[in-house]
Predict the structure.
Amino acid sequence: MKSLSLKCGVAALALMVAGAAHAGKSDDTLNVAFTKELENVDSYFNSSREGVVLQRAVWDGLVYRDPVTNEYKGNLATSWEWIDDLTLEFKLREGVKFHNGEEFDADDVVYTVNYVADEKNGAKTQRNVNWMKSAEKVDKYTVRISLKKPFPAAIEFLSGPVSIYPNEYYAEAGPTGMGLKPVGTGPYKVTEVEPGKHFVLEKYEGYHDSPKGQPKVGKIDIRTIPDVNTQMAELFSGSLDLIWQVPADQAGKLGAMEQFTVANESTMRIGYLTLDAAGRTGEKNPFTDVRVRRAVAHAVNREALVAALLKGKSKVISTACFPSQFGCFQDVANYEYDPEKAKALLAEAGYPDGFETDYYAYRDREYAEAISSFLNAVGIKTNFHMLQYSALRELRMKGGTPVSFQTWGSYSINDASAITSQFFKFGSLDDSRDEEVRDWLDVADSATDPEKRKEYYAKALTKIADQAYWVPMFSYNTNYVFTNEVSYTPTPDEVLRFVDMSWN
Amino acid sequence: MLNFILKRLGLAVLVALTVSAISFSLLFMAGDPAAALAGEQATDVDIEAIRRLYGFDRPMIVQYWEWLSRALQGDFGESYYFRLPVADLIMERLSITMTLGVCGISFALLTAVPLGVVAAIRPNSLIDRFALFLSVMGQAMPSFWFGLMMIVVFSIQLNWLPPSGTKTWVHFIMPTIVLGYYAMPAIMRLTRAGMLDVLGSDYIRTARAKGAGEGRVLFKHALRNAIIPVVSLAAVQMGFMLGGSIVVESIFALHGAGYLAWESIGRNDLPTVQALILVFSMFYIVFTFLSDVLNAWLDPRIRVA
């Protein structure tokens, strides 16, 4: 129904000429739409993109990563150093105040870290916090964070998902209270929350001299509008100023109209096929043969998928990570599109007439179907199953799948440990179970010397590509559409940064 | 009459219990609740933590019993997804759905019944044809398309009505029409058929013969009999509108209970889904019950049966 609804809507919208815009600049309010209902504004208790967007606007981390240069800068901390492999010491910025007037100091960092690192408190994205053991105060503006084990990506995580909460307020309000009345140090303070539906942010006049820059737009009004066509209608009628995650074909049509700017940026999400190399679905499974896996890699015309379906800044990828991520070694085996070679490899593996296999996906049906038709063309007949995410996940955790089309966004963490190590270290989603790869990744994940990390990620990624455990397909992109009154340059990490927006 | 009401009530409770037990087990069959709750970005560690936190590792029957015994005391628990009390969440969303449902069914009844009566009085006339045309359109147009067309015309081209949201009553105009229009054809056709049937019956001829005025014949004698199946149908439609206005709620970004139910199923938010299903089944039960009582009042023969 959804895709039909989209198509009809586009046809209808394309027929008419848009009315004049009226909201926005005149009252210094930027109207934005979210597609998904955000579960909780408290960033430790949501796992969605919308949550990341609000987190970056409302709170600050100790560290900030410049989204363009990828350089780490002090935010709530002014400097930091590794005392040893397991201890990080931070000097904190003085004179910062939370939105409710509470003064920021070491107590806030200690409380936040100790609260979220404790599994009993149920932070939703454990991976973001479970590497920290605890925090202790050295003096009012010095704090130490202890790690459970060496974790070189610590600074990356501290610049991303780990934001600092006011200790007195959080102790009283808890995650539910924080979700309804969020308080942070960030460039925007929250003035209104209707759970899941509506969020209003206002410029925080007392925002400290942060590397994020100062907020320019006075007010941000965010409404959840699930239907993309309705979002477009709101944009036409002038009651929205900015929408994002707009599908490629709609964005193309909007871009042809004078009153809108369409900006396309890549995201850290990648799409890939994972093949059952370990034989979890049965020892006779054809994908246990490396020739079959390589045949799959040669069978899919990834350039064509990017050109015809994903468009924009999407790129064909060959490694099991997103190219900008630390350690994402690029010089690995690349399988060019060559259906004849694929057939030859299949014949060599003992399948001259191909074979039949189950094939699964949970999102992006059109990409998954296109991939399946490439596989059919070389003789791998796919029985395509489109499942709900949770159902496919359960299936993969329990018995694996022969082939499935998966995607992973790395939670916008610019480090290969957020993707490669999640899937190749014998977790329930590891379809290859290669001990060598696992051991290399263990070294890479915990070594403190960056060069050593790079070396071991390169080893692991080279073997993954050579063995074709995964067939990496492409990186995703997203379209941002806004009226000409708005000035904004999106960043490649799919985080809407209100602080970077201004009026033309 | 009391006996009749008590019997119906007992039946209603049994229906509600069965529905809730079935829906509970269906949700567990639809996929790992911990994985659904953790979301797409979750790692194994996240899922395991959630499984332990919410006790999904226990037998299903234990979990159902725990939910039921709490629900019977009026405690619906906290939404897994929003981390807010389910009762508050549903109350807030339900007020929107109720407003929309009442407006929608009123719109449907106020247009469909008069049109049906007029069409029956003048069968095959121009007005009957027009009514037929309207109802065929209503049945044939999917509501997502009709909704989008309304937005295109009234919000974008004419700029009269806001495309989405719930801020003022004006925001409810288009959703009401779209939702009501979907229910209209069936009500109208049923009214027309019932009226035609009744108007041809002996007692109408008798009423006319004893010199009763046309208005009295139509409304006291004919409509009162013809409306009985319409009342039952409207009750079912009303239940449908309250629980099933997902498409309309999603297009017009209304965030009502129907949309909440739809989203909560995808998120495996068990407490919310269970409470909503209970509420929705109660709606059906209450409306069918009310329509039974109303019909019993309209037609004394039903009371005896």
The two ends of chain B are 11 Å apart (CA to CA).
